[in-house]
Amino acid sequence: MTLENVLWITLSAVLAIALAWISYFYKSGKTPHQWLLACLRCLGLFSAFLLLAPLQFEKVTVNMEPHRLMLVLDNSVSAGRNASRPALEQAHDFFMKDAELPERFDLQVFTFGSGVRKGDTLDFSEKRTDIAGTLKTLSNASLDGNTSVVLVTDGIQNQGRGWLPSGPNAISVFPVVIGDTTAYRDIRIDGLNSNRFAFLDNQYPLEVLISYRGDEATTALLTVFDNGRKVHSEQVPLSAGRASKRLSVLMSAREVGFHTLTAEVASLENERNTRNNRQTAGIEVIDEKTRVTIVAGRSHPDIGALTRSIESNEQRQVVLIKPGDVPSKADDTDVWIFYQPDPAFRKAYAALENGNKPLLTVTGGLTNWNFLNGIQKTFRLEGPGPEEELLPELNPSFSYFDARDWAVGSYPPISGFLGEYLVLQPHENLLGQRVRGISLNEPLMTLVKGTERREVVIFGEGLWKWRMHSYTQDGDFLKFDTLFGKLWLFLGAGKANERLNLDYQNVFDGQEAAVIRAQFFDEALRFDPSAQLTLQIRDSTGSLLDSYPMAVSKREYQADISSLSPGAYSFEVAVDDTAFRKSGQFRIQEFDLENQQVRSDPEALQSIAQASGGALYYPSQLEQLRDSLMSGDRFRPVSRSQRNVVSLIDFRWLLGLIVAAFGAEWFLRKYNGLL
Questions:
Q1: Across the strands, what pairs with 456?
Q2: What mean pLDDT, rounded, does the chain reach?
Q3: 428 phi, psi to nearest 5 deg
Q4: Contacts of 626 (CB under 8 A, 6+ apart)
Q5: How far is 415 from 417, CA to CA, in rounded Å?
Q6: Could you give the angle at which helices 3-24 and 34-52 cross, rounded to 10 degrees?
Q7: pTM over cut 0.90
């Protein structure tokens, strides 16, 4: 009890006695039951004064907390092999049947594979092993530093990233290595990476990751197959110890369709594990060229510059026609370019109204603005002024794509008319006009996201000067062609068939969930979560296997196909009640991740033990592990004190005493006629 509490209790008693004495004895005559009434008054006042004071004291509770010992057992497929399973079960029985361990420790048992679970049920069905993730989860759940982990595993991790315990309160890990720890010569393919798509008659890189473990240097024969046909082979030198090689093989896309790519390294003499000597990837070869039609009434250097810039990408093809030939080319064109329109373009604009193909318009000194203002409703030039040399000025707030690397400050001027340019559709200006160092706040190049089609308008001629300047400055046309390549992508993004996009892997190898994803956009190119998308899957013979709706999740549609058996499949995603549909092909690969490595990894477990302050043990050393746990000072129970501030007197009793005292006083006074 504190000094403040004693003083308040003393003061409360003195005040209560004084007030009771004044009420019943000071200048008061003798009354019936005078002393009893005074005592009741004193008791009620004393209780009321105590109720007003925060009378508290500190209560200390001391508990002995046993050290928490977690027995964590590997439940993966690799731990269930003949070389590992008996040792793991032996360790499990050793700790569970020991009579002293539960008395000394708070013993908890967990199993793990891709995740950690409480309990000791072992069926060795986990197809992935995440040791680092398991230890991190247990560490996050034990932040008091009073926890140790006995980790019984073969050390083979094939999921997650590396993680080591750290910090003053980190858990201590005591790995028990099970399985075959003998070092064997082994060569394996760790990865096979390729693009999802390749264009016909192009070349594409295939990345092969090879690793080797052995005491002697060796040379491995790498062979690459395309749909079972041998297309590449080479000898790969590998140094002794732990060696790895990253190879890039240039492949040719010669046939349209889905291609299964297989990389295989020849097995070493007496190599024990050959399951990891080959891997498979997939790529789809497509023939999908963007057809660009330039419509011009006369020759101009700009037309040659645009043609060469467009065709710098092999998947774009340019055709040059006269304005009168537009109707005959309408079905064979993906993107239109109208160069300096004049009245001869009347039929061209009429044909353009029958579709929503994107359009790039270039104006200049030969443009008939009276005709152009009347024939289309995207832009206008009010009161054309004199022709002038216009310098480009990059708009820093342009947001349709990143154009900050396009240094146009040193570009030469192009020729165009002065005047007030009005853009009548939603748009952003990429370039503005500058004349003699003065910004005119007028567009020089604008990008339009119209309701019917996407358009790009360049209000000047002389683009060939810009392309030549790019070559003079950098020794190539790359910067100019890259920027204009972004213009073609912007125009193409507004095409109807781009409103439905697919995202999927060509080969699902079992290392992650097999999911087909899709996005569907409305006419304003906003994600549409209310659409109904249906996925149809067919086998290699073309027979329909299943058809089911795709679910919406986080701005995309998803369908899980993990239940499909290994094999080749084709699929189609269709938007119900519309003409939007896209198709693709994929392969489900039979891949046993747990059998890619047969040797245990004591080196990795040793690193974990050292980082956490633990030690590495083998199944034959379980007794030593137990003795070290039982005798170690850091594993002794921890005394933890808990300090609580509690009330000295229960206020409910005080309230009851106050009511009883004042109630009895009132009753006696009433009974004796003193009220």
A1: 360, 447
A2: 84
A3: -140, 140
A4: 94, 95, 98, 101
A5: 7
A6: 150
A7: no
What does the alpha-carbon distance between residue 284 and residue 506 come to, in Å, rounded to a whole number?
7
Please report, as a single letter, which amino acid is at residue 279. Q
CA atoms of 467 and 310, how far apart (whole Å): 12
CA distances from 625 to 108, 149, 637 (A): 17, 12, 18
Measured CA angle at 378 (ends 352, 371), to 5 deg: 75
pLDDT at position 664:
80
* 602: its two tokens: 């004591």
248-252, long-range: CB < 8 A, 24+ apart: 248/205, 248/206, 248/207, 248/208, 249/205, 249/206, 249/207, 249/208, 249/224, 250/203, 250/204, 250/205, 250/206, 251/194, 251/198, 251/203, 251/204, 251/205, 251/206, 251/224, 251/226, 252/202, 252/203
C-alpha gyration radius of the chain? 42
Are 243 and 155 in contact by the 8 Å Cβ rule? The answer is: no
- Report d(CA 111, CA 115) in Å as an integer: 8
End-to-end CA distance of the chain: 41
Whether 224 and 232 have beta carbons less than 8 Å apart is answered as yes
17-26, 222-231, 235-244, 298-307: range with lowest mean pLDDT: 17-26
Per-residue model confidence as pLDDT tens digits over 154-213? 888 877 777 777 666 678 899 999 887 777 788 988 888 887 777 777 788 899 999 888
CA angle (504, 505, 506) in 5-degree steps:
120
Q: Are strands 551-552 and 229-238 parallel, antiparallel or unpaired?
A: unpaired
In the sheet with 116-118, reading across from the earlier edge strand, the strands are 116-118, 105-112, 67-74, 147-153, 172-177
552 Cβ neighbours under 8 A, 6+ residues apart: 529, 558
Per-residue pLDDT tens over the stretch 118-156: 988 888 888 788 888 888 888 887 767 788 899 999 888
* Phi, psi (rounded to 5 degrees) for 547: -145, 120
Residue 394 one-letter amino acid: L
| Cα–Cα distance, 368 to 366 (Å, whole number) | 7
Angle, CA 33 vertex, CA 32 and CA 34 arms, to 5°: 90
